[in-house]
């Protein structure tokens, strides 16, 4: 979709800090880091939200989530990881290209957010 920010990231019109990429999926750091390593995982085809997501695209996306999560754990020494997905403006979705937030969690006593 020509006016979609994430489609522009996929085709390179907008730069991003890539975490993972294959033929079907791209993962990149969120521009607004909720915690260090906050990553978005998106399908390379434009799907608006979970209601629009077909099974094949969902399978391709979720098949790489464990490997991306392990890579984040190695890179950032996180203690846990939240996965968040907003669907529809009523649920807080702001970018209408399906994306899964991977939000690393750290021990507060380490002073890392
Ligand atoms: P939503 O609220 O739709 O679930 O989350 C959209 C996310 O996209 C937000 O966390 C926001 O920071 C992120 N975002 C918006 N525009 C850009 C961008 O141009 N680059 C990157 N890397 N992240 C973006
Ligand atoms: Zn898109």
TrEMBL record:
This is Protein hit. It comes from Lederbergia ruris. The chain holds residues 1 to 113 of 141 of the full protein. A motif (Histidine triad motif) lies at residues 97-101. Residues 5-113 form the HIT domain. It comes from the Bacteria.
């Amino acid at each position: 979709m020509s006016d979609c920010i994430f489609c522009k990231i996929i085709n390179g019109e907008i730069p991003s800090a890539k975490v993972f990429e294959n033929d079907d999926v791209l993962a990149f750091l969120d521009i607004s880091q909720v915690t260090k390593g906050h990553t978005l995982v998106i399908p390379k085809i434009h799907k608006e939200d979970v209601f629009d997501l077909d099974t094949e695209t969902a399978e391709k996306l979720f098949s790489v989530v464990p490997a991306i999560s392990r890579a984040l754990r190695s890179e950032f020494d996180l203690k846990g990881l939240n996965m968040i997905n907003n669907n529809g403006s009523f649920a807080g979705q702001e970018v209408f290209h399906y994306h899964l937030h991977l939000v690393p969690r750290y021990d507060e006593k380490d002073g890392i957010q």
